[in-house]
UniProtKB/TrEMBL annotation:
InterPro entries, alphabetized: Asp/Glu-ADT_sf_sub_c, GatC
The protein's name: Aspartyl/glutamyl-tRNA(Asn/Gln) amidotransferase subunit C
Subunit structure: Heterotrimer of A, B and C subunits.
Gene: gatC
Source organism (scientific name): Paenibacillus baekrokdamisoli
Biological role stated in the UniProt entry: Allows the formation of correctly charged Asn-tRNA(Asn) or Gln-tRNA(Gln) through the transamidation of misacylated Asp-tRNA(Asn) or Glu-tRNA(Gln) in organisms which lack either or both of asparaginyl-tRNA or glutaminyl-tRNA synthetases. The reaction takes place in the presence of glutamine and ATP through an activated phospho-Asp-tRNA(Asn) or phospho-Glu-tRNA(Gln).
Length: 95
């Protein structure tokens, strides 16, 4: 499969890119070369290869939740530009 100039123009339009004629030709050649290289994968026998989402086996990668002490209100508000009654004070956004 090869990429045409029209294909490059379509993708550039979707990406909101303006390309010169030289760039269109350059990208068409580069993308065609990439697809040609990827077509080599069709030569591989993958009948016994199980589909995977990761190269390595991945189990739960999340750490266990641990209860710990939170910062105090005073520490949280220490660098606040403005605070009132133990809360951050911000300009009103509604009238």
């Amino acid at each position: 499969m090869s990429i045409t100039i029209k294909d490059v123009e379509h993708v550039a339009n979707l990406a909101r890119l303006e390309l010169s004629e030289q760039e269109k030709e350059q990208f068409a050649g580069q993308l065609s070369a990439i697809l040609k290289y990827a077509e080599k994968l069709d030569e591989l026998n993958t009948d016994d290869v199980e589909p995977t989402s990761h190269v390595l086996p991945v189990t739960n990668v999340m750490r266990d939740d641990v209860n710990r002490e939170s910062v105090t209100v005073e520490v949280a508000l220490k660098n606040a530009p403005d605070a009132e009654d133990g809360q951050f004070k911000v300009p009103a956004v509604l009238e």
